[in-house]
Design brief:
Number of strands: 11
Bound molecules: zinc ion
Structural class: alpha/beta
Order of helices and strands: EEHHEEHHHHHHEHEEHEEHEEH
Largest sheet: 4 strands, mixed
Distance between the termini: 33 Å
Number of helices: 12
Strand content: 15-25%
Helix content: 55-70%
Shape: elongated
Strand order of the largest sheet: 1-2-3-4
Mean pLDDT: 83
């Protein structure tokens, strides 16, 4: 994630802090020190309340970090790569990358976080109950409640919450259809979001505190449930399209030694975007859309070769791969075209435009059509 600072590295995972964290940290510390601790635990100085607020905020964020770490450690035990954990505005997020996960692995991974939060809540509860020192009793009073809330909230079976992921894993194991499983689990997420919003509205009119928070969290959850479902559908559609279907074996070929001026006059203005620049010693691509403006003088001086991106600098895709991987590779390298490889030989090209056009078509007609006909589409 961008706008993040790396804090440290543990178990080979980078722990990062998103800049929004600072905002929440100050807001939380401020509200704890001024309005939470004083009425519940009277008799301390203002300075002590601030210290309580800072410590409680820090320990809460450590709790969130431990929640995310428990997801990540289960993932690692399942040989799933975890690059980083980012602590941000609404909590934490673990950067777990895995194409196809076994339902049992996803279930255990999803459930580990909330279970750890409940365990942590229990530990804080016992420290609170011991009541050895008023200062720590106040802090643990807050922390046991928040960790229980974190655990229980995340166990709700609405995707993309942890409980929703676990629920989806069960549905996936049962239906063997990830899109269907995600649709149902995301439906659970939306339903829960609507309940939160309604509770929030009732709270607002009833004068109970926290109504606005319920509406905000509900709205956010409704939004991400929709987006997460779409992401899964897009991935499913693109993964089912083979590179061979989208590949073009020929695009207009230009001699690298041609002047840019001639290229512009005789080729580029005909309307193609992409050109294969090739002779015996050089192979590259010219993407007309990405060319910078050039003075008349430069247009005459420069050769096509100097304005093209050498193929050796673009990571290609194999004919056996699929459109989902190609789309990722385009984004990763910030290019609109990839060479298609068979062994080390370039046998064609696949463009970002071809991928998105096909995606739009399949979403509108093909994919749903296959579902209606009951075919697997693969
Ligand atoms: Zn979680």
């Amino acid at each position: 994630m961008n706008h993040s600072t790396k804090l440290f590295r543990i178990f080979g995972i980078d722990i990062q802090l998103h800049f929004s964290w600072w905002f929440i940290f100050f807001l939380l510390t401020w509200s704890l020190s001024t309005s939470f601790f004083p009425p519940f635990f009277p008799g301390y100085t203002q300075k002590t309340y601030w210290l309580m607020g800072i410590l409680a905020s820090l320990l809460l964020f450590i709790s969130v970090l431990l929640h995310e770490l428990s997801h990540s450690l289960v993932a690692k035990a399942k040989k799933i790569q975890v690059k980083s954990i980012t602590l941000f505005f609404f909590g934490g997020v673990a950067g777990i990358t895995k194409e196809d996960m076994k339902p049992s692995s996803e279930f255990q991974m999803a459930i580990a976080g909330p279970l750890f939060s409940l365990l942590l809540g229990t530990v804080f509860y016992f420290i609170y109950k011991l009541d050895v020192n008023g200062f720590w009793t106040a802090i643990t009073f807050y922390l046991y409640q928040l960790n229980f809330t974190l655990g229980i909230f995340n166990l709700i079976p609405g995707f993309p919450l942890d409980g929703g992921r676990a629920f989806r894993a069960i549905l996936y194991a049962y239906f063997k259809d990830l899109t269907k499983a995600t649709r149902i689990a995301a439906g659970g997420g939306k339903l829960f979001a609507v309940v939160l919003i309604m509770l929030g509205i009732v709270g607002l009119f009833g004068g109970a505190g926290g109504g606005l928070w319920f509406i905000l969290i509900g709205g956010f959850l409704y939004f991400i449930a929709g987006v997460s479902y779409e992401q899964v559908v897009v991935k499913e559609v693109l993964s089912s399209i083979s590179i061979k279907e989208l590949m073009v074996s020929e695009i207009p070929t230009i001699d690298p030694a041609m002047s840019f001026e001639e290229f512009l006059q005789n080729h580029a203005r005909k309307g193609d975007d992409l050109f294969f620049v090739k002779n015996d010693t050089f192979a590259g691509i010219i993407d007309v859309k990405r060319l910078q403006p050039l003075s008349q003088k430069m247009q005459q001086l420069l050769k096509v070769k100097q304005l093209s991106l050498p193929l050796s600098q673009i990571k290609g895709i194999t004919t056996k791969s699929n459109a989902y991987n190609a789309f990722h590779l385009c984004n990763e390298q910030n290019v609109d075209v990839l060479p298609v490889l068979e062994g080390k030989k370039t046998v064609g090209f696949v463009t970002r435009k071809a991928i998105t056009n096909r995606l739009v078509l399949d979403l509108r007609f093909g994919f749903l059509h296959k579902k209606v006909l009951g075919g697997s589409g693969k």
